[in-house]
């Protein structure tokens, strides 16, 4: 099945379903991990088993091997990394699955935060050799903040790694997250033979599949595995012994605790060689949370509310460079969305007719007729949408905004060719809208060049690359030498009240709010001691009803 036929199939059953039935069959999740844990590979294998693609790609493809579906940007293909979020929808076992693929590189953590705001579940991917890593910990905290259910997939079991019990203990002790292994590995490294399904008691054996193809699976009872010699006796004995330990001392599987984000079902496998991917997908769809109520200005909004509502969690320019398009990704939160429907834009109060909504599959799109809570639709965005905007029908709904986080790298963005200023301005404004980077401005109006602010250097490189390749404007970066940003709570009035400040630079953000830049944490702490009444925030306040300043 091709990607386009898969997405068409995904929407077809929905047209005959009631709202309650459509919500009940939907599952929505994001995958979080540290770079190189295998996130993009797992994404491809889930699409393969879901029937959405015929052959899984590789992040660093060789020869005729196809590139991965989720990495659509040319720079991603060149570097072999995921640097932007995409949405992938497919049907599997009577469910419509919305997979929100997120960047794996740590420089793009803010894009991941925004995507997690649209997710109902998260899959935490770990490398069996490395265990918990810094980026995984950081993203886990975002999930915990939002009380998102977390499913853990311990990957690369076919390579030398740490003991499974040690990995489980690390998650429980360091994250404070109770674990319940759904399956348990038989051996590891070059002696990895498969897993034992803890609920059925079956031994599931795997054979290496042809690269990119689905793996063959064999299910045996423990007695059959012993009698046939399908597994070395000592490996099977050790796995069963460890399971006895878990049964005696471990937690019980409790769906309420899973959905509250307090208990994590754990799976073992190898995405690259297809070990454990299908059992994971089957169990995940059974245990995962359906689309849930979202917090609005007047309290939680039930997905079964008849009137449509949703919010923008991502903007993306030039997914199709031939058409210079700009797409707003909208998470449907309640009611049924229909093509050509007229909605209200909560921030501006304007009425908008949504005539060409699109169903997304990586870079592929097709017009969508309807969508339900948990789904993500793409809307053409001629500059009217911003991240966090709410769209609704009927009684006014406004969902919680998505905050900006403190950047750590700051550079002047210079345009050496004044004749290309119109293209330069258009590119900077569009990339700022989609959240590729934050854009700050000097308080001296004569300094017109913008300041790019980002979490990591790669974000700045991507902006330069896209300005040159998508807008035809080569640029130059000049570092500012600051590493900490704080928004002034109370705005310009609060800043003027304290008088002159030292060892920091004052700039304004796109909403004309004062931001202080510091060379290091020591300078920040010194200012806090000198001016204890000046309140600073590492997170930008959410803006409602105000248009950002364009370059």
Walk me through the structure.
The chain is α+β, with helices and mostly antiparallel strands. The protein folds into three domains: 288 residues, P-loop containing nucleotide triphosphate hydrolases (Rossmann fold); 98 residues, P-loop containing nucleotide triphosphate hydrolases (Rossmann fold); 137 residues, Alpha-Beta Plaits. 27% of the residues lie in helices and 27% in strands. The strands form seven sheets. An eight-stranded antiparallel beta sheet has the order 18-17-23-14-15-22-19-20. The protein has an eight-stranded antiparallel beta sheet with strand order 28-25-27-26-30-31-29-32. Strands 2-3-1-4-5-11-6 form a seven-stranded mixed beta sheet, sandwiched between helices. The longest helix is centred in the middle third of the chain and has 17 residues. The radius of gyration is 25 Å and the shape is globular. The two termini are 45 Å apart.
Concise synopsis of the structure shown:
By secondary structure, this protein is an alpha+beta fold. It contains 15 helices and 33 strands.
Keyphrases for this structure?
Alpha-Beta Plaits; 8-stranded antiparallel β-sheet; alpha+beta; Rossmann fold; single chain
């Amino acid at each position: 099945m091709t990607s386009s036929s898969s997405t068409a199939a995904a929407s077809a059953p929905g047209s005959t379903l009631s709202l309650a039935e459509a919500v009940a069959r939907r599952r929505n999740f994001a995958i979080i991990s540290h770079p190189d844990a295998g996130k993009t590979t797992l994404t491809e294998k889930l699409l393969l088993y879901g029937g959405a693609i015929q052959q899984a790609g590789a992040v660093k493809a060789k020869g005729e091997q196809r590139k991965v579906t989720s990495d659509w940007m040319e720079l991603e293909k060149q570097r072999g990394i995921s640097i932007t979020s995409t949405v992938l929808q497919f049907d599997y076992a009577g469910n419509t699955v919305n997979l929100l693929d997120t960047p794996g590189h740590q420089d793009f953590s803010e894009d991941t935060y925004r995507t997690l705001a649209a997710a109902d579940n998260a899959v935490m991917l770990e490398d069996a050799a490395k265990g918990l890593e810094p980026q995984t910990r950081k993203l886990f905290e975002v999930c915990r903040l939002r009380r998102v259910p977390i499913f853990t997939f311990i990957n690369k079991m076919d390579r030398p790694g740490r003991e499974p019990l040690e990995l489980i203990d690390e998650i429980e002790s360091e994250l404070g997250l109770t674990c319940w292994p759904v399956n348990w590995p038989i051996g590891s490294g070059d002696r990895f033979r498969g897993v034992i399904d803890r609920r059925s008691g079956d031994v599931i054996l795997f054979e290496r599949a042809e690269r990119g193809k689905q793996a063959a699976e064999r299910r045996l009872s423990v007695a059959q595995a012993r009698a046939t010699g399908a597994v070395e006796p000592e490996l099977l004995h050790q796995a069963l012994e460890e399971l006895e330990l878990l049964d005696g001392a471990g937690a019980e599987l409790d769906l309420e605790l899973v959905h509250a984000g307090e208990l994590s079902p754990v799976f073992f496998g190898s995405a690259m060689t297809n070990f454990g991917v299908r059992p994971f997908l089957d169990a995940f769809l059974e245990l995962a949370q359906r689309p849930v109520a979202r917090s609005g200005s007047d309290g939680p909004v039930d997905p079964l509310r008849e009137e449509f509502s949703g919010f923008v969690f991502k903007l993306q320019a030039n997914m199709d460079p031939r058409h210079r398009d700009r797409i707003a990704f909208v998470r449907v939160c309640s009611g049924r969305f229909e093509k050509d429907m007229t909605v209200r834009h909560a921030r501006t109060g304007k009425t908008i007719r949504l005539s060409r909504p699109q169903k997304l599959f990586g870079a592929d799109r097709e017009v969508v007729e309807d969508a339900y809570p948990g789904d993500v639709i793409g809307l053409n965005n001629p500059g009217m949408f911003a991240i966090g905007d709410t769209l609704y029908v009927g009684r006014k709904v406004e969902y919680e905004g998505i905050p900006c986080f403190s950047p750590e790298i700051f550079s002047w963005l210079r345009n050496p060719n004044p004749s290309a200023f119109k293209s330069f301005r258009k590119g900077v404004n569009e990339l700022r809208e989609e959240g590729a980077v934050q854009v700050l401005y000097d308080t001296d109006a004569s300094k017109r060049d913008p300041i790019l602010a980002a979490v990591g250097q790669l974000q700045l490189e991507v902006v330069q690359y896209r300005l040159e390749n998508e807008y035809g404007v080569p640029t130059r970066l000049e570092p500012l030498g600051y590493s900490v940003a704080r928004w002034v709570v109370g705005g310009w009035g609060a800043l003027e009240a304290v008088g002159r400040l030292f060892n920091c630079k004052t700039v304004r953000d796109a909403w004309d709010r004062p931001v202080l830049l510091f060379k290091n944490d020591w300078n920040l702490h010194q200012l806090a001691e000198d001016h204890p009444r000046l309140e600073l925030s590492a997170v930008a306040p959410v803006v409602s009803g105000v248009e950002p300043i364009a370059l």
